[in-house]
Specification:
homodimer, about 240 residues, alpha/beta, Rossmann fold, 7-stranded mixed β-sheet, two-stranded antiparallel sheet, about 30% strand, globular
Chain lengths: ~240, ~240
């Protein structure tokens, strides 16, 4: 089973204080870019892989989605998500996405935010998801960028001239990366961009849009601490369709 | 017009001594990966954008391509290419790819090796190429990887623990990059992977395969100096179809 770091008390405590936990979608820097990639959600049956607190599930219903299934491995995240809505159109289920099981042709749209980098067997998940979507359905996802995940020391460094640099190494060496973020020993699965995109294609998806999020000038003016994000991408955003 | 660095005497002299110039396709580390992405070439009308010495044009004819058009901006490269064949099925033309002009529906396959990073208006080139290909035609290309092109100092560095790192910065700042490689002041156009892939999609291509070349264990055993290539990708290989 995938490491369930979100049910680690220290991690959950730290995570619950992040902007994206307190403010929801508006607290996520990459949300405007992701939102721009969404189809019209009205009337769609939506599945959210790694729904967390359910912010996107509730958003989808506000946009008129017919029904939403939110899946997550964390009991605590799901408990919080359930406490935040009484909408009968949203269903939350605890699922280990490493062994995803979905009925065929049951959904018209899939979404996944910052979740798939925890999955070791992504080919299996994508194949199940492809079967679960009707032809023509869109799939919008974000994932930690491989450039962000790859390095032995994934943190800013300074070069001989005092310039801020991202010390990239091991980019092509795929597999586990263990970092200390909110808690010790968080395990993620590093894949190159090429591998990730080709896995999507092999699973039957057609790529519509690939974006490596970086802040606009206006966003940097409003959040000067976001400027380093232009030096290396943190989030990879992908739009595809079945 | 795109900088024609290949007709710079110092550059041409240095370039002509590279393995890929002396040995041809077999001297290019990424060739086995690119070759694996090719369709059956027999009977196809092929266009090669940035044909250089014409190694791929001659290969395509050996594989049975019906006719091959090799385009390059460099008179010297084309002169060398013409001197290496008397095959009437290969035609070489001097072209500034920045202002590509091709007849519609005239080709069944397009190839471009390490050329498109010199082009400023890639949307225009891709749109012209798309029109020039029959529906279903494949397009296989390589390009310098954005991770390789982006940094202020695109060269290996050492971190505080003595580890070899690639000092990435400015990844999301697209535009010109000027480096000294074989000659001073070589101008390339940096785009993120997201921008490049989305430009291909917008031009009407469907992505089939995305690969960031890195050496296999066997290749590293044969060429120990290739090992650093696993720390950051140098070549991006893309297979697509119209």
């Amino acid at each position: 089973m995938t490491q369930n770091i979100y049910d680690n008390p220290a991690f959950f405590e730290g995570y619950s204080q992040l902007g994206r936990s307190v403010e929801g979608l508006a607290g996520a820097a990459e949300w405007p870019s992701l939102r721009a990639m969404l189809p019209e959600l009205k009337g769609l049956r939506v599945v959210d892989l790694g729904c967390g607190y359910g912010w996107f599930c509730r958003y989808a219903r506000e946009q008129g989605a017919a029904e939403v299934l939110g899946l997550d491995v964390s009991e605590q995240m799901l408990a919080r998500a359930r406490s935040m809505t009484s909408d009968a159109g949203i269903r939350y289920e605890r699922t280990d996405l490493e062994h995803l099981d979905l009925p065929p042709a049951a959904f018209d749209f899939a979404y996944s935010s910052l979740t798939l980098h925890y999955i070791a067997d992504l080919a299996d998940l994508l194949s199940t998801l492809h079967r679960a979507l009707l032809p023509g359905s869109r799939f919008v996802l974000s994932i930690e960028h491989p450039i962000y995940m790859a390095p032995t020391r994934p943190d800013w460094a300074t070069d001989a001239e005092g310039r801020r640099i991202w010390p990239l190494d091991r980019y092509s060496e795929e597999g586990e990366r263990t970092t200390d973020w909110l808690a010790k020993g968080v395990v993620k699965q590093h894949r190159t961009m090429g591998t990730l995109l080709t896995l999507l294609i092999r699973a039957g998806f057609t790529l519509d849009h690939v974006e490596e999020w970086s802040p606009t000038d206006a966003e940097i003016a409003a959040h000067p601490d976001w400027a380093p994000e232009r030096d290396r991408p943190m989030f990879l955003l992908i739009g595809a369709h079945r």
